[in-house]
Design a protein that fits this description.
Elements lengths: L1 H33 L16 H24 L4 H47 L1 H14 L4 H11 L3 H11 L11 H16 L1 H8 L7 H27 L3 H28 L6
Helix pairs in contact: 2-3, 2-7, 2-9, 2-10, 3-4, 3-6, 3-7, 4-5, 4-6, 8-9, 9-10
Length: about 280
């Protein structure tokens, strides 16, 4: 009898899934037939692993390094001074950023693990209260009370699923789904070094061609702008934003920081009288 009921239940579920598939195919067909009259599907963002670490470290590296170059150039120091200060600052900041990202990611994972332990205890010892909170959460999202009760009652049969649902309801990912801290730190460090080197390249590449520090500074401006534009494009690609707006905002951010650094360096050199 139990086997027969299981077969009937399985057959019913299979039939329901087949009906759902038919409905989906019909909707797709109608959408295709409507053409331009139907609403178009929003553009899906590009899912790149560790994108946040790359963008954050890259932008910070370019702005920090170029701001240092601007300040040093305004103080009329030599190209050798720019390279020494630039690369020393780049490596030190890169290590600091990488370690900071590692510690931050580790803390997030530890918090998620601790919260999951607490949630498991609550589900085991105060299951009724936890189910009621989840029921209220689904109702707040617009679900009918009967449907919400049905969903919660189904989840309640599977403790692990109920725990994960509670975690998601509190905006937490399960620890096993969290990013690996050491990878985050390594990606941040490498991205900082790679993007931060862009403004310094002109002071190296142009050595055989000119000794004019102003020309080298102009080259640093161009390379920094190119690097910032590439970051802006990558940001727009990942977030599904407007490319021109993203590039403009990124360039403005870099230009504003560099201008502020240049003014400070010039002021200390010419007005405050700090020389040598």
């Amino acid at each position: 009898m139990a086997a027969e009921e299981t077969n009937i239940s399985t057959s019913t579920a299979t039939a329901w899934l087949l009906d759902e598939v038919d409905d989906i195919e019909e909707e797709r067909s109608e959408s295709f037939d409507n053409g331009a009259t139907g609403s178009s599907r929003p553009k899906e963002p590009w899912k790149a692993e560790y994108a946040k670490s790359i963008l954050y470290a890259g932008l910070d590296a370019i702005v920090t390094c170029f701001s240092l170059i601007s300040s040093v150039s305004a103080s009329r120091l030599t190209s050798a001074d720019v390279l020494v200060l630039g690369f020393a600052n780049l490596v030190a900041d890169g290590i600091s950023m990488g370690v900071g990202d590692f510690l931050s990611s580790s803390s997030e994972k530890d918090v998620a693990s601790k919260e999951m332990t607490v949630t498991e205890w609550d589900v085991t010892n105060h299951g009724g209260l936890e189910k009621m909170e989840l029921l209220q959460k689904y109702q707040a999202l617009g679900m009918d009370v009967d449907d919400a009760a049905t969903v919660v009652s189904i989840f309640a049969k599977y403790k692990d699923i109920l725990v994960q649902e509670k975690m998601m309801a509190h905006g937490r990912l399960p620890p096993e789904e969290a990013e690996k801290p050491w990878k985050n730190g390594l990606v941040t460090f490498v991205a900082f070094l790679v993007f931060g080197s862009a403004p310094l390249l002109s002071f190296i590449v142009l050595i055989p061609f000119t000794n004019n520090d102003l020309v080298k500074f102009a080259g640093a401006c161009i390379l920094s702008a190119v690097a910032l534009a590439l970051l802006g494009i990558a940001k727009a690609k990942i977030a599904g934003q407007n490319y021109a707006l993203s590039v403009a905002v990124t360039l403005f951010n870099g230009a504003a920081a560099a201008a502020a650094a240049y003014v400070v360096g010039w002021t200390l050199k010419n007005i405050a009288g700090l020389e040598g």
